[in-house]
Amino acid sequence: MTTPVYENFINGHFLKNQSGDTFAVKNPATDEVIYHVEVADEFIQNAAIESAKLGFAAWSAMTPIERSRILLKAVSILRERNDELAKVEVLDTGKPWQEAECVDVETGADVIEYFAGLAPAQVGQQQMVGNDFYYTRKEPLGICAGIGAWNYPLQIACWKSGPALAAGNAVIFKPSEETPLGAIKLAEIFIEAGVPAGVFNVVQGAGEVGQWLTANPDIEKVSFTGEVGTGKKVMASAAGSLKDVTMELGGKSPLLVFDDADVSQAVSAAMLGNFYTQGEVCTNCTRIYVHKNVYQQFIDELKTRTEQNIIAGDPMDPEVNLGALISKKHQELVLSYIDKGISEGATLLTGGKALSPASAPNGYFVEPTIFVDCKDDMTIVKEEIFGPVMSVLVFDDEDDVIRRANDTHLGLAAGVFTKDIQRAHRVIHQLQAGICWINSYGNSPAEMPVGGYKQSGIGRENGIETLDHYTQTKSIYVGMSNIESPF
Ligand code: NAD
After folding, report:
1. What is the rounded CA–CA span in Å between residue 370 and residue 427?
2. d(Cα 8, Cα 15) in Å, to the nearest integer?
3. pLDDT per residue as tens, the chain (487 positions)
4. Is there an atom of ligand 1 within 6 Å of 206 CB?
């Protein structure tokens, strides 16, 4: 059977490359090639820039309310096609249908809807200076690049294009080479909704295509989602043309469970924050610090619920709640971290091996894995694993656990479980992280700004402030009387 070949999406349509280079995309749950994609060669790259320039001219000339109306149309199409798009995400990522069906498309559509609503409300300011005055205009930046990771491909494309397009920019988006289809579907939807050709372009390929985007002088901003190490390369390359950057990077986030917490609720949060999307979520609370008075109760319930309630298998089966990891290579990396955990002396509470479920025997599955009695200096406690691997640690002093939680160069997210309202806020205010939860974990509504402290990121996505990151302020001074000049 021949598999489809997808071309790059430029100036409102598919465009064939000249090199003939393609790459294969596999379904992580079956290890089968499901389609091929053409690489964006030099011809495509030049065409993408020319297309985005034309797109920008047309789009930025429209009023914010016109742009808003068109984007809202795209939002309704996204919602109408929820199931078709969710299926694309399941086949590309290996994540369970029961998640994609209610999260991936919805949270993407929500963000476009949110920024479409905000766009017409963005205003400049005006101030008198004596009899003269000045006013400011919020102008779009121009061509913005988006570079995505593979864990939430469509959602990431929506989160980057929503504010960029609402503010009047054109976008060239490069999805991860592991999951290229969702962004193409979004591009088609934008055209169908009435977004002019050239406003949203999709280029395909691996790091070298990303690198070209970051270095290209016609591009004004790069919004990047991916690993810390790649983020550093992106920022260094973007510095060559002094581009604005937004960096959404990795994490090793702590969850603190105090002895007055609702332990079952904390177990739910720990499981969600480690096993949802088979652990491939940047904000995951992979370091769980549990107060010694509830430690045993916490790990007993955690073990029981993990062993009884997690169902791995064909991700399209609506009963399945643990999918396949993105690639064989990533599965091997996650298993190597598990080996390291064992060799460094952590106690394996459950899991620890590759899995071969009957309904998806060739998929890249890893058992939900929990290490207990972990120590702060173990590799599994220090490094992002990006798989279903949880480390549990014990504590007994508030100040000490805050110090331990902050002892990392990462700072994406953090959480606290306690019924003491003063402690909840006191502790969360001291945690060095950009996205925090109290008696909750993982929710990220469009209204809430998200982004990292320390090496977990720069800038924010979502929330009102993000619109400012996609506009620049022009100040205009207006003289109302004759110029006083000594010349
Ligand atoms: P990655 O860094 O390997 O790749 C991300 C993207 O960068 C891909 O599209 C890739 O092709 C591209 N790329 C690779 N080299 C490049 C270069 N030199 N220049 C420009 N682009 C380049 O990350 P990944 O493995 O796809 O994703 C997993 C990582 O993403 C994890 O670390 C995770 O924590 C992080 N992540 C962060 C967030 C967040 O919002 N903070 C969200 C999702 C994922």
Report:
1. 25
2. 6
3. 589 999 999 999 999 999 999 999 999 999 999 999 999 999 999 999 999 999 999 999 999 999 999 999 999 999 999 999 999 999 999 999 999 999 999 999 999 999 999 999 999 999 999 999 999 999 999 999 999 999 999 999 999 999 999 999 999 999 999 999 999 999 999 999 999 999 999 999 999 999 999 999 999 999 999 999 999 999 999 999 999 999 999 999 999 999 999 999 999 999 999 999 999 999 999 999 999 999 999 999 999 999 999 999 999 999 999 999 999 999 999 999 999 999 999 999 999 999 999 999 999 999 999 999 999 999 999 999 999 999 999 999 999 999 999 999 999 999 999 999 999 999 999 999 999 999 999 999 999 999 999 999 999 999 999 999 999 999 999 999 999 999 9
4. yes
Nearest CA to ligand 1 atom 34: 250
Interval between CA 4 and ligand 1 midpoint (Å): 26
Residue identifier of the C-alpha nearest atom 13 of ligand 1: 207
Q: Is 282 a catalytic residue?
A: yes
- Would you give the distance in Å from CA 54 to the centre of its chain? 28
Q: Are 188 and 14 in contact (CB under 8 A)?
A: no
Q: How far is the CA of 148 from the centre of ligand 1 (A)?
A: 6
| Sign of the Cα pseudo-torsion (5, 16, 217, 145, in order) | negative
Residue 160 is among the residues annotated as catalytic for this protein = yes
The closest alpha carbon to 445, from 162, 107, 154, 113, belongs to 107
Residue appearing with tokens 């060239």: 172
Which residue puts its alpha carbon closest to atom 4 of ligand 1? 226
